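Section 5: illustrative case.
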């Protein structure tokens, strides 16, 4: 299994936007998710999209984040709008319920005033 590779993180201002991308060897047939981990916090799932397109979000990101997938190009995306300080974390993508071998190293998102 080749781990996914995330990109698109960086520095954003409060209220700003970032779009994260995830390249993975194969996503068709799998539910996919974005998770984040801030220093001192546990890793948490923020968004999940099933292969049939059904979506779930963690409450704190509802209405601000949008997860999408492109099965034809084996890509997963996370559009993050109206960013808040508490969104600062390392964001990773992968297959929910699978070991860390199915998750990427992550990309840092830092939200500042």
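Designed sequence:
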């Amino acid at each position: 299994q080749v781990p996914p590779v995330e990109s698109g993180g960086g520095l954003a201002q409060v209220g700003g936007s970032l779009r994260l991308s995830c390249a993975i060897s194969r996503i068709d047939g799998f539910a996919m998710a974005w998770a984040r981990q801030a220093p001192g916090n546990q890793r948490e799932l923020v968004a999940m999209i099933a292969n049939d397109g059904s979506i779930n979000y963690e409450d704190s990101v509802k209405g601000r984040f949008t997860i999408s997938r492109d099965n034809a190009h084996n890509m997963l995306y996370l559009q993050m709008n109206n960013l808040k300080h508490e969104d600062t974390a390392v964001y990773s993508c992968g297959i929910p319920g699978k070991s860390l071998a199915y998750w990427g190293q992550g990309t840092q998102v830092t939200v500042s005033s």
